[in-house]
Design brief:
Keywords: Signal. By secondary structure, the chain is of the alpha+beta class. The protein has two helices and seven strands; from the N terminus they run αβββββαββ. The two termini are about 15 Å apart.
């Protein structure tokens, strides 16, 4: 499959997602700057508001692909605003890091077609994030194709197995992005 074919398929998937989300009347709200206290917050404290996208490399980060400069950097305390059974309820989770090895990827179902959003989270918070995502995420009931995984940098994976999805540590925050 050529790159242009992959881009065309990704565009078609995005159109399908938009139509499916409108048909189902459901789409996740994705945020990262709220500081609500809830079940996933390890200490309930919001992180610093300033963020640099040019972190100093460490030996642990050296092997990881660079985080795109246009990525919007979330706070160290991320949020999930439930699009389904707990509609409107916001849960916080730990996304703090000192190196890329502190970070893992968590997934949240964001529409009734089964599309997923990938979040960068602290590895120690993974099981709590996954439990909340199961309760919070939308479970598919629509007759539509799932879009490829979306990352926090706003990009969508070009591959069904999302092997271009990466997680890194930038300015002490875990963030997902699509490797170019």
């Amino acid at each position: 499959m050529t790159r242009s074919s992959s881009i065309a398929l990704a565009s078609l998937a995005l159109v399908t997602l938009s139509i499916g989300a409108l048909a189902c009347g459901q789409l996740a709200t994705i945020g990262s700057d709220r500081s609500d206290e809830s079940a996933l917050s390890p200490n309930g404290q919001p992180g610093p508001a300033d963020a640099s996208l040019d972190p100093a490399p460490t030996p642990d980060d050296a092997a990881a692909p660079p985080i795109p400069q246009d990525a919007s950097l979330p706070s160290p305390q991320g949020t999930l605003t439930c699009p389904s059974s707990d509609a409107g309820v916001t849960y916080t989770y730990d996304r703090s890091c000192t190196a890329a090895s502190d970070c893992v990827i968590g997934f949240l179902s964001i529409d009734c077609c089964g599309s997923q959003m990938a979040y960068g989270i602290n590895a120690a918070a993974k099981s709590r994030f996954d439990e909340t995502a199961l309760t919070c995420g939308i479970r598919g009931v629509c007759d539509c194709a799932a879009e490829y995984v979306r990352s926090e940098d706003g990009a969508t994976s070009l591959y069904a197995d999302h092997h271009d999805l990466q997680v890194g540590c930038a300015d002490q925050r875990c963030i997902t992005y699509i490797a170019k």
